[in-house]
Specification:
Order of helices and strands: EEHEEHHEEEHEEEEHEHEEEHHE
Shape: globular
Largest sheet: 9 strands, mixed
Helix content: 25-40%
Strand content: 25-35%
Low-confidence stretches: none
Oligomer: single chain
Number of strands: 16
Number of helices: 8
Length: 300
């Protein structure tokens, strides 16, 4: 498995509408996350005293909560205070990862109707000592999944929601195949993203990424497109088939937890890694310079 239990996390302090021990960190059986996966979430990495892209992640959490008609959503300052308080309680300043979750909250009785949610949202800050999920030097192997990625006519992937069953089913297929993750296609058969990350490919010194129709337009994805402009790398969003990815000069995934990770093969087809195509290396090096630029410095 890519992620393992870390004994450093045995006694961490967690925020569940307030600080508590890992052992006491619980939500009610009446909470919407339990009742229907009715919650939104963000992943945030901590680098050398900075919470990377914290402002952008809070923006997206508010966007997703608004799309789901959450009430009494915590303010930006309340969320930041909970994040900083949790990190300080755990003395985490580097090589840590936060799973930030906001549920619709506890219901007065079980049921689907959001009008049963009368206690306000539940904010969870789960901070762990955790390295990036992939080996960015070794790279990853992918298979294509039979599970299609959601698009706006079903459950819009632009809502960063906790309803992740289609991603989990795709991940199960990857596990059975002995791959690291799975490529999920859209309803038309074009590549959307993996079960966990966005995807890019390089062909003839041009960077390509799938249109954000059936994928989450990720924060790291957006940063990579910005960095490409800064580095003078031509970049395009377009429909991309599996065949095009099979024949890429380079291919990689992007995500908060995975950073920028080379794809070594898809469905047994090795990515060419053509000599002279080194755009990923340039982007990886530039990525490190963005941490203090887009990071919020920890106040402790």
């Amino acid at each position: 498995m890519q992620q393992q239990y870390n004994p450093q996390n045995a006694d961490i302090i967690v925020w569940v509408n307030g600080l508590c021990s890992r052992q006491d960190a619980k939500v009610s059986v009446f909470d919407s996350a339990v009742q229907g996966g009715d919650a939104v979430w963000e992943g945030i990495r901590i680098y050398d005293g900075y919470t990377f892209m914290l402002e952008q992640h809070i923006d997206r959490m508010h966007y997703s909560a608004h799309a789901l008609a959450f009430k009494e959503v915590p303010t930006r300052e309340e969320i930041k205070a909970a994040v900083f308080t949790t990190l300080e309680a755990n003395n985490m300043r580097d090589n840590a990862h936060i799973r930030l979750t906001l549920t619709r909250g506890e219901k007065i009785t079980s049921g689907m109707d959001p009008r049963l949610n009368q206690a306000g949202p539940t904010l969870i800050v789960l901070a762990e000592h955790k390295p990036p999920v992939y080996d960015n030097a070794k790279g990853i192997k992918l298979i294509s999944s039979t599970i299609r990625r959601n698009n706006p006519q079903f459950l819009d992937s632009k809502i960063h929601h906790n309803n992740l069953l289609n991603n989990i089913l795709a991940k199960i297929e990857a596990n059975v195949a002995g791959a690291d993750d799975a490529v999920m296609l859209d309803m038309h058969g074009f590549v959307a993203e993996t079960n966990a990350t966005n995807m890019f490919m390089v062909k003839n010194h041009t960077l390509f990424t799938p249109l954000p129709d059936a994928c989450l337009p990720g924060i790291t994805r957006k940063l990579v497109l910005e960095m490409a402009t800064e580095l003078g790398i031509p970049a395009r969003e377009k429909n991309i088939s599996l065949t095009e990815f099979y024949n890429a000069d380079e291919a990689f995934t992007t995500g908060t937890m995975g950073e920028l990770t080379p794809i070594q093969e898809i469905d047994g087809r090795q990515i060419i890694n053509r000599v002279g195509s080194e755009l990923l290396q340039k982007l990886q090096q530039h990525f490190t310079t963005k941490i203090p630029v887009y990071g919020v410095k920890l106040p402790f």
